[in-house]
Amino acid sequence: NRTGQQKLKEDGYSYDDEQEVGLPPPSKSIFQLDPFYEWLQWKGGPRRPGPGLYNLGNSCYLNATLQCLAYVPPLAQHLLRGLHSRRHQQMTSPPPTTTSPHGQPGHHHHHHHQFNAMVELEQLFSRMHSGLSQGPLSPKVLVANLRSLGRHFCVGRQEDAQEFLVHLLTAMASCDVRVAPKKLRHQGAANRGEREKVRRSLEMTSSVHRVLGGHLR
């Protein structure tokens, strides 16, 4: 019998036998698990604490959560690659300027840039770990978009750190799914129910779930 650790390394899914937990492994993955094993330790040795974050009006719950996540080695080192930002930019960049039949330049299609939690975290963590900051950093974009994470959150009001963490991790997993290759996101889903099933399966292979996910038994 293989141990749970061996099982995890071989199929990139679960410490337990799938039939034991009653959950089939996802047929497709956004991220394989092996790289996250390599990032369990900081490359180049332990990191010194970086700059703090400004309190933007009762935002200490948000700051504490972000600072904890910024020093989880596998998650932080994954985000410091900037992979999500590059994928997001590729998907949202406007097409080249078109030319009219008369040779005159056409118009760009304007894209509305929505808040993206993963992009903001990649940028913030990059600044926190750069060693270049001379003082605290401002998480103003995340604070300004609190209601994008949870509709009941209110700027300037003290919120629960654990509740904020749950909403932030959910948003991060959703961001990973949105920038996954189209063939992964569709997988032949014919209706809304099937698409939702695919989405949930993919979220289990997001960077957040690879580092922090699990199943209660």
TrEMBL record:
Presence of keyword Protease: yes
- Give the family this protein belongs to, as stated in its UniProt record: Belongs to the peptidase C19 family.
Q: What is catalyzed by this enzyme?
A: Thiol-dependent hydrolysis of ester, thioester, amide, peptide and isopeptide bonds formed by the C-terminal Gly of ubiquitin (a 76-residue protein attached to proteins as an intracellular targeting signal)
EC category: hydrolase
Residue ranges crossing the lipid bilayer per the database entry: none
Q: What Pfam families does the record point to?
A: UCH (PF00443)
The chain positions of domain USP read 51-217
Which source organism?
Fibrocapsa japonica
Could you tell me which residues belong to the region Disordered? 1-27, 85-113
One of its GO biological process terms is:
protein deubiquitination
Q: Mind telling me what this protein is named?
A: ubiquitinyl hydrolase 1
State the Gene Ontology terms under molecular function: cysteine-type deubiquitinase activity
What are the record keywords, sorted? Hydrolase, Protease, Thiol protease, Ubl conjugation pathway
Q: Does the keyword Protease apply?
A: yes
Query: What's its EC?
Result: 3.4.19.12
Cellular component terms per the entry's GO annotation: cytosol; nucleus
